[in-house]
Predict the 3D structure of the following.
Amino acid sequence: MRKIKIDVWTDVVCPWCLIGSARLDQAIAGLPEDVSVEVENHPFYLDPSTPPEGYDVGEMLSKKYGREPRETWSRAEEQARLAGIDLDLSQQPRTFPTQKAHTVVRLAKPKGTQHELANAIAAAYFLEHRQVNDDNVLADIAAEHGFTREEALGDMRDPRELEQSHQLAIWAAQQGIQGVPFFVFDGKFALSGAQPQEVFAAAFKKVLDDAA
């Protein structure tokens, strides 16, 4: 069995992370049966200044770019459809702080459900339009990925665990990661952005050829 390790920096309120993760998973599904892939998710803040109550994304985009948010959203929505995701960004008007989400995802690593949990939280936010800063929403999702609700609630309310997630997110930015999704293959080379599936396939081929 040949093994590949992929370190992934994402934020669950980042639409391009949703798309990039889907494309990564599709590329993994296309690998030979003798290739095993371990995906480890790491915290990153899409917007570290997000207030506790969140904010309206459309209003922010209108002020920042001076045009209708639909124009900004359309490219991501088109790329999402190409990846098999029915994404309508107008249906999730608010963005939220993600420190709690990052904490439960980080602590899911020993359970072997980390990547699936990160994907599930992102899907709940973008596709089910749920408030992923709400403790009970996160606990419900975590309970489907190896946690008990009580365990998940305890983890996301633990000041030490929250601080560790926060420091890891800050560290990622300090290391030069300026945008997500960001992927590192076997600690050797990186891909930035929601690359097409064939780019992921080429990256896997390079890793496997280098290890041969």
